[in-house]
Design a protein that fits this description.
Length: 633
């Protein structure tokens, strides 16, 4: 328009004819140039193509539906139709409404977005034969799938394109060639190397896989890597491997358990990362497996040892491991040794300060050795009690339970066991044993039988009104006269017993021997009508039902005669017991005091009669040795 106006103005300057001719010439020239431009190949036409109609889009969808291979049609970037093969491929079967209307790039792996843009640009030209390439789509479960894509424009549907997919097999021969060329080298490694596809199936493993799992290489190819994983770890391995294969995780490092064909479980370190080709194409996952069972066991052993140490520290006794030799050389001793015998573990281990064998009582050493050897010879555990000396030299009774540790060939490697203090129990047992020995040696009645006799006699006396008496004889003053160390030394010289605690033991034995000699002096009251028992603590009890002071029996008319008869018997007894004892070269006097209780209705039981006689003996002792006192008289 500007050219026509300019020609009219210029023509008016040159006359009437020019004012008409010049504008007409400009108009003809412009129309000619416009016609010529439309004929040139670089003409792009109008800037906006017409929109596709609903009928055209329906035709495109029908075309896509009739294609057997996975296919979609797109309008711009938006999916307008997807056939069943495509939906099944991406696990969207029966859910086409979730796909239609989405941007196609939502189903495309992010790594391939630039490649898709390039293919779309090529498909937009007249020559669409080169709009082919490999694309990775993302399935509904997040897993990638690699496919060959062919993008074609639909000329009858403005702005629409048809994308057809097929399996990508073009790169497989090249990859197989690389693997074959490297297999000889990789088979020499002790480290397991593997490659899996995007779904976790084994595509390659080296020879170390066979040595580790017992599964052959041909048998393993195509199987899931997690098939060799312990069932409890399998799910976590599958999820982690899929995360790496899908590009969500760059690398993986975790410790898992494998199970070989023999059923043995062992720990491995699994390391994996994505496998990409030089062009950035993801082809699966590569990784390594290295066994870490020994390290794991070391860590577990350390934890177990800490737990064991805590447990042993609270056990009332000593746990040990040692050698089977006469010294009982210790290789391990728990902290319980301090509470048991006062020695620190290091003092006993390898006999650094003292050997355990030297602490065993000399009288028990041979017995202990014989019992343990007999049990070891039969491969049986042993249980035994014996005496050991503590750090102060005092002996205590211990109870030991142990067993031998043998090799697979039956060779004895060590002995292990537990030792605990049983002095209190053994003390009670020893006291009962010594009482039995004392009663057998002296002919005295046992305490249990004496108590029963007294209770029965008291009852009969109250029912039938016949007299009897209970004497409480106290020679406790003898204890102070036998306690000096010289007495024990003399007995050590006589018996030959020496070592830690020997003097204490010898002193106890001396006192027992002296008491036995005193017990044999109860002859004046030890007959058919009397019973004598030892009450402990240098005290005796005498039950009298026969009051014969001479050789012939006679009836007692009243209580006065009973008192007289009992007094005579008590005096004879005091005289007999008070004779000095010869201990070594020394004469030891025996201080005696006697308390007497006569049967009476006021005594409701044996204990009340015992108490009355004991009080009377205490009163007699206050008066001096050799006195007798009646209860409540």
């Amino acid at each position: 328009m500007l050219a026509l106006l300019f020609s009219v103005v210029v023509g008016s300057w040159h006359g009437t004819t020019t004012s008409y001719v010049l504008p007409v010439a400009v108009l003809v020239t412009g129309l000619s140039m416009l016609w010529l431009a439309r004929k040139l190949p670089w003409y792009v036409g109008s800037p906006h193509r017409p929109e596709a109609t609903a009928q055209q889009e329906q035709w495109a969808g029908q075309l896509c539906h009739n294609i057997s291979s996975p296919s979609v049609t797109i309008q711009g970037q938006e999916i307008t139709f997807a056939n069943q093969a495509f939906l099944a491929l991406l696990h969207y079967g029966g859910r086409g409404d979730q796909v239609v209307g989405l941007p196609f790039t939502n189903l495309l792996h992010p790594v391939d977005h630039p490649r898709f843009a390039t293919l779309m640009a090529i498909a937009g030209t007249d020559d669409a034969t080169d709009a082919e390439g490999v694309l990775r789509l993302v399935r509904a479960d997040g897993g990638p799938v690699k496919l060959h894509a062919s993008i074609s424009p639909l000329t009858l549907v403005p702005g629409s394109r048809l994308i057809q997919f097929s399996a990508d097999a073009a790169v497989a021969p090249a990859r197989d060639g690389v693997e074959n060329s490297m297999s000889v080298v990789l088979d020499q490694l002790d480290l397991v190397m593997f490659k899996t596809d995007a779904e976790g199936r084994i595509a390659y493993v080296n020879r170390a896989w066979e040595r580790l799992t017992g599964r052959s290489m041909p048998e393993s190819r195509g199987r899931m890597l997690s098939a060799a994983v312990h069932p409890e770890d399998r799910d976590s391995v599958d999820k982690a491997m899929l995360s790496v294969a899908g590009g969500q995780t760059d690398h993986l490092s975790m410790e898992v358990r494998l199970v070989n064909t023999g059923g043995n479980v062992f720990w491995v370190m699994l390391r994996a990362q994505t496998c990409t080709l030089p062009d950035g194409d993801l082809v699966g996952v590569v990784g390594t497996l290295s066994e870490v069972t020994r390290r794991r066991r070391g860590e577990e052993l350390g934890s177990s040892r800490r737990y064991l140490n805590t447990l042993l520290a609270n056990v009332p006794g000593m746990v040990y491991r040692g050698r089977n030799d006469p010294e009982w050389t210790m290789e391990f001793v728990s902290d319980g040794s301090v509470d048991l015998i006062g020695y620190e573990p290091w003092e006993l281990v390898e006999n650094h300060r003292v050997s355990f064998g030297s602490l065993v009582h000399p009288e028990d050493r041979e017995f202990l050795w014989a019992q343990v050897q007999a049990s070891l010879a039969q491969h049986k555990p042993y249980q035994i009690s014996y005496r050991v000396a503590d750090v102060s030299g005092n002996y205590l009774w211990v109870w030991e339970q142990g067993r031998g540790v043998f090799s697979s060939q039956g060779e004895l490697l060590a002995i292990e066991g537990f030792i605990t203090d049983v002095s209190e129990r053994r003390g009670a047992e020893e006291k009962a044993r010594r009482r039995m020995w004392f009663e057998a040696r002296t002919g005295m009645t046992s305490r249990a039988i004496f108590d029963s006799l007294l209770a029965w006699t008291l009852h009969q006396s109250q029912v039938n009104d016949f007299p009897f008496a209970l004497l409480w004889v106290d020679v406790s003053g003898l204890a102070g006269r036998l306690s000096p160390p010289e007495t024990g030394v003399e007995l050590i010289q006589a018996t030959g017993v020496a070592g830690p605690g020997a003097q204490t033991q010898a002193g106890s034995e001396a006192i027992e021997q002296a008491l036995a000699r005193v017990a044999r002096r109860f002859r004046p009251v030890n007959g058919p009508g009397a019973a004598v028992t030892y009450m402990d603590n240098y005290q005796f009890a005498v039950l009298l039902t026969d009051f014969r002071a001479g050789e012939t029996a006679r009836a007692l008319a009243g209580s006065t005669e009973v008192i007289t008869a009992v007094s005579q018997l008590a005096s004879r007894l005091v005289q007999e017991l008070s004779a000095p004892l010869t201990v070594g070269a020394e004469e030891v006097p025996v201080p005696v005091s006697v308390g007497i209780a006569i049967a009476d209705a006021r005594y409701i039981g044996a204990e009340s009669m015992f108490a009355a006689a004991r009080r009377a003996a205490t009163q007699a002792a206050e008066l001096g040795p050799g006195h007798c006192e009646f209860a409540d008289e």
